[in-house]
Amino acid sequence: MHDESRKPIRTISSREIYRNKWSRWREDIIERANGQRGIYGVLDKDPACIVIPIEHAADGDYVWLVHQYRYTVGASFYELPQGGWEDANVDIEEMARGELREETGLTAELMQPITKLWIAYGAMNQIHHVFLAEGLTQGETDRDDEEDDMTVHRVRVEEFEAMLLDGRVMDNCTAAAWGVYLVWKRGR
């Protein structure tokens, strides 16, 4: 564990440079322990969640994925259901259940928190809560306007793992959540 009282970087000043309903950008003037000053750009976002919906069927295990276009990289990919509600004080499990239902139409009998991870913490301040969803029931989706191109896919676990390696899944949060899930599952 690290000693928080001995931070190697001190904030001299901070100013917000942009804000929208999803995020806040700030620019900080910092000073390193050696006295050298610099600038740090930080993207602040409210907590988010990522859900691993697993279905245990007679013919094997399946994971539910969404497929959508990601404007920032100009391509469409598969990923685990995930998102946030732009509220710093949100009930995390309620948000996880809500994101799962909104994006996939699924409700879960069991919503098990596994861990939490920072998303791209070299430039972003956002925590991602990882949940396992089991005991799934299909219903209707309720997507945001930004998700109108999203499709839902039930994929065998073996196929999903192949997708992580062949470029159909390139979302680091999906890959990290799956890796943490496998470690968590092995320890149970």
From TrEMBL:
<keyword id="KW-0378">Hydrolase</keyword>
<dbReference type="InterPro" id="IPR000086">
    <property type="entry name" value="NUDIX_hydrolase_dom"/>
</dbReference>
<dbReference type="Pfam" id="PF00293">
    <property type="entry name" value="NUDIX"/>
</dbReference>
<comment type="similarity">
    <text>Belongs to the Nudix hydrolase family. NudK subfamily.</text>
</comment>
<protein>
    <recommendedName>
        <fullName>GDP-mannose pyrophosphatase</fullName>
    </recommendedName>
</protein>
<dbReference type="GO" id="GO:0019693">
    <property type="term" value="P:ribose phosphate metabolic process"/>
</dbReference>
<feature type="domain" description="Nudix hydrolase">
    <location>
        <begin position="44"/>
        <end position="186"/>
    </location>
</feature>
<dbReference type="GO" id="GO:0016787">
    <property type="term" value="F:hydrolase activity"/>
</dbReference>
<dbReference type="GO" id="GO:0006753">
    <property type="term" value="P:nucleoside phosphate metabolic process"/>
</dbReference>
<dbReference type="InterPro" id="IPR015797">
    <property type="entry name" value="NUDIX_hydrolase-like_dom_sf"/>
</dbReference>
